[in-house]
Amino acid sequence: MHPGWADTEGVRTSLPGFAEAMAARMRTPAEGADTIVWLALEDASKLEPGAFYLDRVPQAKHLALSGTKYDAPRAAQLVDKLLGLAGLGGADGGAGGGEGAPEASAARAGATGGGAGG
């Protein structure tokens, strides 16, 4: 989910020029928190799994012409690598024996929402 640009201490500190230029258009912290609170309280059966929410509505995960896209094999490679680094199986060894196989990685990527992210 994305809170939108909210007038918070973090934005004012890390992006002071942006915060000043956009002050009239930024959301209040409460407005920025609205969607995450709504998602936490909404019945999960009414939500789209893996969706990228803004203002309580699923949004496109990739912008046109941005060069981003979901790539299942690369996502599986990343999951496999991270599991290995964490010692939970995967390409770098660790517990789990053969769980680092590409098929297992693809299954894990699918079980975690697949195309989630944005």
From TrEMBL:
Keywords: Oxidoreductase. This is Dehydrogenase/reductase SDR family member 12. It comes from the Eukaryota. Its EC number is 1.1.-.-. GO terms for molecular function: oxidoreductase activity. It comes from Monoraphidium neglectum. Residues 101-110 have a biased composition (Low complexity). Residues 92-118 are annotated as: Disordered. InterPro entries: NAD(P)-bd_dom_sf (IPR036291), SDR_member_12 (IPR052992).
